[in-house]
Amino acid sequence: MTDQRIARPTDDRIDLSVDLGFGKVLPNPLMTASGCAANGAELHRFFDVSELGAFVTKSVMADPRSGRGTPRMAETPSGMLNSIGLQGPGIAAFVDTDLPWLASVGARVLPSIAGSSSTEFAHVAATLRASRAFEAVVGVEVNISCPNVANRGLVFACDPGASAKVIALVREQLPRDVPIFAKLSPDVTDITSIAAACVKAGADGLTMINTLLGMVIDTDLMRPHLGGITGGLSGPAIRPVAVRAIWQVRQAMAEGRIPVVPIIGVGGVRTGRDALELVAAGASAVQVGTATFNDPTAPVRVLHELTDLLVEKGYRRFSDVVGAAHGSPLPPRPVPVDERSRA
Amino acid sequence: MTDQRIARPTDDRIDLSVDLGFGKVLPNPLMTASGCAANGAELHRFFDVSELGAFVTKSVMADPRSGRGTPRMAETPSGMLNSIGLQGPGIAAFVDTDLPWLASVGARVLPSIAGSSSTEFAHVAATLRASRAFEAVVGVEVNISCPNVANRGLVFACDPGASAKVIALVREQLPRDVPIFAKLSPDVTDITSIAAACVKAGADGLTMINTLLGMVIDTDLMRPHLGGITGGLSGPAIRPVAVRAIWQVRQAMAEGRIPVVPIIGVGGVRTGRDALELVAAGASAVQVGTATFNDPTAPVRVLHELTDLLVEKGYRRFSDVVGAAHGSPLPPRPVPVDERSRA
Amino acid sequence: MSASPVRARVAKEVAEVIATRRVGAYQHLTLVSPQIAELARPGQFVALAVGDESSATLLRRSFSIHKVSPSGTYGGTVEIVVSAVGPGTRWIVGRQPHDPVDVVGPLGKAFPLPTEPVPCVLVGGGYGSAPLFWLSSQLRERGCHVEMVLGAASEDRLFGVVEARRSCDGVTVTTDDGSAGHRGWVSDVLPELIDRTGAGVVYGCGPMGMLRSITDIAGRHGAVAQVAVEEAMACGVGVCMTCVMPVVGTDGQTRMVRSCVEGPVFRGDRVRWDAFEGNHARVPDDAVGAPRAGGH
Amino acid sequence: MSASPVRARVAKEVAEVIATRRVGAYQHLTLVSPQIAELARPGQFVALAVGDESSATLLRRSFSIHKVSPSGTYGGTVEIVVSAVGPGTRWIVGRQPHDPVDVVGPLGKAFPLPTEPVPCVLVGGGYGSAPLFWLSSQLRERGCHVEMVLGAASEDRLFGVVEARRSCDGVTVTTDDGSAGHRGWVSDVLPELIDRTGAGVVYGCGPMGMLRSITDIAGRHGAVAQVAVEEAMACGVGVCMTCVMPVVGTDGQTRMVRSCVEGPVFRGDRVRWDAFEGNHARVPDDAVGAPRAGGH
Ligand SMILES: Cc1cc2nc3c(=O)[nH]c(=O)nc-3n(C[C@H](O)[C@H](O)[C@H](O)COP(=O)(O)OP(=O)(O)OC[C@H]3O[C@@H](n4cnc5c(N)ncnc54)[C@H](O)[C@@H]3O)c2cc1C
Ligand SMILES: Cc1cc2nc3c(=O)[nH]c(=O)nc-3n(C[C@H](O)[C@H](O)[C@H](O)COP(=O)(O)OP(=O)(O)OC[C@H]3O[C@@H](n4cnc5c(N)ncnc54)[C@H](O)[C@@H]3O)c2cc1C
Ligand SMILES: Cc1cc2nc3c(=O)[nH]c(=O)nc-3n(C[C@H](O)[C@H](O)[C@H](O)COP(=O)(O)O)c2cc1C
Ligand SMILES: Cc1cc2nc3c(=O)[nH]c(=O)nc-3n(C[C@H](O)[C@H](O)[C@H](O)COP(=O)(O)O)c2cc1C
Ligand code: FES
Ligand code: FES
């Protein structure tokens, strides 16, 4: 199957291509983050969404969902809290309208799917596979950071067993050459154990991190600010947590505790330099979420900033930079020592 | 035993006193955060440390410790990362020099103790108890967010069993009328289970939260920025996580899943309004940490701002505000509705 | 949220502040923003970034477009009227002439204009009047008789009384404290005004409580209400789903719709006012995809 | 970290910028800061807050005090010389006259002055020369013969060549690229200078690599080195333990000491230069409380 959507890298100064596995090669590592870019049409007014390595859609569930009441957001220092509650049109409308539109503009799509039970995840995956625009799909992101109704609402991604079950069921529904990415929550004692469970259950890659559970009190009204009481914390504030999670999982891969699979980094990326932090920690691709609310062109801007930064540093291949902070491969040439550095 | 250090509240517009239990009444709820105020002398140049409800000292271990190599800090959006590695003089020097000095200026002291094994914690507590300035101690904070050498360096606070063991041993070493506070880490899947284990093992209160595990990559050198690779994330960036943790534990207390004990809130407090968020979520006292680096007068400034805010809102007793966002007790009078609020 | 490929054009530009002046309790800013000035229609809004790259304030702030001049000496300008209520608006009112401000717009749907020259009443609460003068001119160009009601807590919080007299056929002022015009609320004077003018449409912009009562009164007096709402917005461009409100669609079904792209102007009688309480809005039980008992 | 109740006085004040001007690659700012101006001595530093309350940049930035004028027309002033290298310093160099800046100081220990009138050599690398002119005046008041060496990568990164000629008995300039003075490093000219002047003390301020070589050379040529170091600081006031360096105490033991309160000036031969590598410093194995194998 030759897929028109698998474009070749275009920057001739550096090879930015990213291999997601199974022949799915993206022209560059930049993506939108699920839930921070809707399903494409809105941002397409600001830039051509097919310029991105891939477009990640808002997590979609089986049925239409209204989401939570309002207020659904609160601004926090260098970040924000949201409690959308996975509002969406349901998978039928998604494959009918959103996916074909993304295909029509030439985007490579990484649909994000969600469920309140493992069978709901499987149903959503099966419907997706059966869709007429499925050829635009370069992989599927499985958002396991949502509440498991069968287990007192405990988030799937907080439990290795529940995570593995979802991943295994989704894996069964999708063609072997479509990689699936388990999207992990940072709100766990040991993220490497969840990562290991997902990979062992069939995840071809990992997306890290989803939001941190947080809360804001409205001190005028003296009650929780959000309609949903707690919400997800995102934005630059959480970047150090994302870098750490990526680093830990990549380290566990290096030590053989987790099979080696690509990591998609997400969390607090606002600039090319921020993206490079996640890449150097081990991410093969980078998503831009909350920063898009500050700057609707952020995903492409970050792509251009990252490209320029890597070219300036003398890299010729993006893949050489992935995980570079672990010591291998080493940066290609020494960094100029300025007045501030010692010795 | 009548203790000169247990001062009476001084603001006549509002009763700010806080009861830590066992007759230990603090004149107000503001404290320094461990490791963010050294042991008093440095900040005493900026304000009288006895003005605070209590002074929390840098976590002290059995022996002198050099801490980690440098760099030990990185600035992050609205926060910072640190990897000090519990540098300190050891408990003998602490009881010899630091504690007597704090006693001499009239401070009420909440020493923070740490250990790499539960027996080290017990030894530190025993040495503290035997000290000549022990009367200045209004309680002891047990920093269980440090690595347990016996358990592959896993942080005590990540494991209910290890946490309970430390607390039980420390509790045995200290007089019954000296409350002990377990300081919890937010880096766990379920903070209420750790809180429950600590209280059941004898903790008279809880301090929440310690730093989040994070990391920064130096993109000039393409390696981890900190000498210690990972570090603790603190500052306003993490406030929503602190508010959420306090809320969850307080809620578990309301539901009878954890015995009711006072909570000391810490995490990202920079202003009186920030402090009020933690209090409304359930904190009976508030510590100011990283904000002190921005403003060395921050702990007293926050006290004054909080006081003014509460007076303005019409409160007469600080204790009425604790946990108010849970719906009970209700704010004493309706808040003026301004143009922005919706009918 | 299903994708509709055809959407109004929108621009992101770094605008220069060329004038800023105090007007009562508000600050009136003029920004050189030629692309936005070119595209905008009354009822649309702009979203301004706050601070520089090292600002802790990530989210944009939204402001109704008060006026545009598509070609001035400096290039097209966009004017806004800002009430300083928090850190973001305080930063914005602190901008000086020549300072740059990052602006996205025009956003949202404009006020729909009647196809026939029907009489209209325009009601503005506080700075909510900002977009109405421009609307009034366009309505009068179409031959509509336009009367305006301006209401606020006190005189300093009224905006544009002089401009109203210039751009409308009649002006009524109300203040809660009686410091200007009638003492009371806009809802006290509105019924009589609709009846007297025979208004077919009542346009409103202001606090939610006011919009609700405008809707009620218009309905009872045979007019259609078109109201511009103000819901907390994280992105302003339709991608975050934070700004939703329960609104009844043409199929009679209630959905949580994005007020930034499907609003901010809604037909008043489509808004599920029953779901609002203080600054919270519930999801009505009969809304599409509403949580079911035992479900999500 | 044991508490020593007697400490130098320190102030926190909101200073007004009264002058700011470009000097080569640097910005020279004059701040009205009477309390700090009153208390400061050469070698001490000030810590400036960056941005307003909604700034994402929480930590203060440290700068050597270039000069103080305890009583000027505006009240006492403090001068600093800033190299814009990142967001914090960029914000500071962007301040305009009359802007307020929040300053804490004076911080740290000053350069110790000799009790006898011995010849001294002062070595400044880049903006590291900033505190040396003031030091020079005080040394000459005590009858010391003072010579200065200014070194930088290029001419625009030299600071104070003219001022040096005024305040010292001799001045030598070096640049890496030869754009001014001798082509080369300060370490190329220092040995001859110490020998010629018979210097008893070499004072240094600049990059760590330079301070290390000053220390080596001073030691080999019979002089004591007093160096002002620059270590990343979160608080500047002694409470956070981020700014530590391995330094040998009077008891011969190495400890990780806080450069903000026990420095920034250290006797060069007390600093454990062997522990530094790039911008990292290890804890030497023989340091007090160093991690043991199998321990922490
Ligand atoms: C479509 C629209 C048009 C508007 N037009 C105007 C106008 O013409 N003039 C004017 O002064 N104000 C207008 N507002 C309100 C203005 O956007 C808010 O007052 C402003 O965002 C508050 O920011 P702050 O940082 O000062 O306050 P804070 O309360 O600190 O803001 C915190 C967060 O809440 C959001 N927020 C708070 N209040 C509001 C609100 N009322 N509406 C939306 N978001 C809010 C902010 O965007 C921010 O993300 C409009 C809002 C919308 C949605
Ligand atoms: C005692 C002392 C005296 C100093 N005197 C001067 C002076 O006179 N003129 C001058 O231009 N600079 C001086 N510096 C260096 C100056 O403090 C840094 O260049 C500045 O903090 C960098 O901030 P930034 O936001 O621009 O850069 P960034 O690199 O973005 O800063 C990020 C973080 O690292 C810290 N940091 C980065 N570089 C340094 C450094 N070299 N030293 C200390 N902290 C650093 C910052 O404080 C901040 O917390 C001095 C530093 C110290 C410790
Ligand atoms: C408003 C909002 C909605 C989100 N919705 C989803 C979602 O539907 N599915 C998902 O996997 N993650 C969702 N996320 C999480 C983001 O995809 C991302 O993992 C997180 O925000 C961290 O990245 P950031 O800091 O760049 O935003 C959402 C985040 C925000 C802010
Ligand atoms: C530099 C630094 C050192 C710290 N050292 C300790 C410590 O020794 N013991 C401890 O319990 N917490 C320590 N903490 C954590 C703080 O006490 C506090 O829990 C955390 O920083 C969150 O609060 P904040 O956001 O107000 O700083 C340290 C924090 C910082 C920033
Ligand atoms: S504000 Fe983001 S969708 Fe409306
Ligand atoms: S900078 Fe905080 S102790 Fe030195």
TrEMBL record, chains A, B:
PROSITE patterns: DHODEHASE_2. It catalyses: (S)-dihydroorotate + A = orotate + AH2. Pathway: Pyrimidine metabolism; UMP biosynthesis via de novo pathway. It holds the Pfam family DHO_dh. Binds 1 FMN per subunit. It is an enzyme of class 1 (oxidoreductase). GO terms for cellular component: cytoplasm. Residues 23-310 form the Dihydroorotate dehydrogenase catalytic domain. InterPro entries: Aldolase_TIM, DHO_dehydrogenase, DHOD_1B, Dihydroorotate_DH_1, Dihydroorotate_DH_1_2, Dihydroorotate_DH_cat, Dihydroorotate_DH_CS, Dihydroorotate_DH_I. Keywords: Cytoplasm, Flavoprotein, FMN, Oxidoreductase, Pyrimidine biosynthesis. Belongs to the dihydroorotate dehydrogenase family. Type 1 subfamily. This is Dihydroorotate dehydrogenase. The lineage of its organism: Bacteria, Bacillati, Actinomycetota, Actinomycetes, Micrococcales. The gene is pyrD.
From TrEMBL, chains C, D:
Residues 3-113 form the FAD-binding FR-type domain. Pfam families: DHODB_Fe-S_bind. Keywords: 2Fe-2S, Electron transport, FAD, Flavoprotein, Iron, Iron-sulfur, Metal-binding, Transport. InterPro entries: Cyt_c3_hydrogenase_gsu (IPR012165), Dihydroorotate_DH_ele_sf (IPR037117), Dihydroorotate_DH_Fe-S-bd (IPR019480), FAD-bd_FR_type (IPR017927), FNR_nucleotide-bd (IPR039261), PyrK_electron_transfer (IPR050353), Riboflavin_synthase-like_b-brl (IPR017938). Its cofactor is FAD; [2Fe-2S] cluster. [2Fe-2S] cluster binds at C235, C240, C243, C260. One of its GO terms (biological process) is pyrimidine nucleotide biosynthetic process. The keyword Iron applies. Coiled coil: none annotated. GO terms for molecular function: 2 iron, 2 sulfur cluster binding; flavin adenine dinucleotide binding; metal ion binding; oxidoreductase activity. FAD binds at R61, S62, F63, S64, G88, T89. Binds 1 FAD per subunit. Binds 1 [2Fe-2S] cluster per subunit. Belongs to the PyrK family. This is Dihydroorotate dehydrogenase electron transfer subunit. It comes from Humibacillus xanthopallidus. The lineage of its organism: Bacteria, Bacillati, Actinomycetota, Actinomycetes, Micrococcales.
